[in-house]
Amino acid sequence: MASYDERAIFETCESAIRSYCRNFPAVFTSAKGASLTDTSGRRYIDFLSGAGTLNYGHNHPAIKQRVLDYLASDGIVHSLDLHTTAKQRFIEELISTILRPRGLDYRIAFSGPTGANSVELALKFARCATRRHNVVAFTNAYHGMSQGALAVSGTRSKREGAGMPLAGVTRLPYDGYLGDADTADLLEKMLDDHGSGLDLPAAIILETVQGEGGLNTASGPWLRRVRQIASRHDIVLIVDDIQAGCGRTGTFFSFETMGFTPDIICLSKALGGMGMPLSVVLLRPDLDVLAPGQHNGTFRGNNLAFVAGTAALEMWRKTSFEASIQDVAARVRGKLADIVELHPGHGAHVRGRGLLSGIGWTNAAIAGRVSKEAYARGLIVETSGAEGQVLKLMPPLTISPQELEAGLAIVEEVVAAVVVADVPHNRHAVLEDATANASM
Ligand code: PMP
Questions:
Q1: Taking CB atoms and a 6 Å cutoff, what residues make up the pocket around ligand 1?
Q2: Model confidence pTM above 0.90
Q3: Which of 317, 348, 366 is the last residue of a domain?
Q4: Residue 400 lies in a domain
Q5: 145 CA closest ligand 1 atom index
Q6: What is the distance in A from the centroid of ligand 1 to the CA of 405?
Q7: Where are the alpha helices (DSSP H) in 318-384?
Q8: Which domain holds residue 259?
Q9: What is the dihedral of CA 394, 396, 397, 399, to 10 degrees?
Q10: Which residue's alpha carbon is at the smallest distance from atom 5 of ligand 1?
Q11: Distance (Å, rounded) from C-alpha 96 to C-alpha 92?
Q12: What is the pLDDT of residues 23-68, one digit of tens each?
């Protein structure tokens, strides 16, 4: 573990906005696959994976070698949006390995390196193409921290951080938000009813699995209905696949098994192969309405990311790669189901889809305690949801069976320890309540 002195520079000089490092305060030095090492030589298993950026693990040998070779050849590193061979190869690989085999015909727009950049550009395309301003976004959505992306995001505390009104968005309930009620009915009714007060939107933006919002999943029938409703009203359907895409749910795009096709897709995070910043917007060709330079940015030509991203996409040439992710996901989901069965207290239940899965509890504090105790035992695993009520497991898709088993064993042990420790605490609380009521 890092000593106080090692951390002092961060604690005294870095802004209070730092976040992940508060829960995992080690000072890290190196990483390989699903393993991170800190300055004291302690190793941690990484079930955080850069929040879905390190789908191929840290320093994947084939990806790293490609980057090293490229640097050794004095390949262009920065290029604004000039043509480079690295970018050319990335586009060719994206089309030949991912888009064409799936029958998808999209233009590729490079938005700037972050996920939020991609969301901002997607919203611009939709608004300019339809000449409407309003956007429908869902409860518990997370789309990024810049103003447009924040406006479509749900978390209250993050929205308050904008310090100004976040306009141009109508919030509607995501699938399952109102229990058994079909929230697509509400969307349809409000769009059809000219008295509903819902300005006809340019776009509907959604995640098929809400990664930050608590691993809420949208069902196939709900997604297909939203698709039909959007088409009927000429509304652009944007799927933010920044976290759920690039293989996280078991297929390259998270919507592939859901029986619908979006008009626009936002991709980022694992697209850069080994954590190199890279984002794109994939859009229906007729939505490509912005003028040259109307969206611009210095860092739209991150050639190391193109090189790393190309090497990563090449892994998808073999269908066995997809099958291997699904095997890992089945193992994780099986273990989570076992844990929930063993420790059903506090409303424990399995959430999410594929390798974007976890356990939710009605007592939100449990997930935080599990994450903290897991860290103490050498596993980095975060929480998600508005109250941090969900333990979110995101191992690399390429994790070795040994590391996977070791990480899952820690989760199992820690859940048992935390749930057992919580029983006397609850009994105590119940007794206190009973005493308080008796004295009233
Ligand atoms: N959309 C989704 C679904 C995300 O999970 C994230 C990041 N967690 C973003 C957008 C924003 O990406 P970035 O942090 O790179 O701006």
A1: 51, 114-116, 119, 142-144, 207, 211-212, 240, 242-243, 268
A2: yes
A3: 317
A4: yes
A5: 16
A6: 28
A7: 319-342, 365-376
A8: 75-317
A9: -120
A10: 243
A11: 6
A12: 999 999 999 999 999 999 999 999 999 999 999 999 999 999 999 9
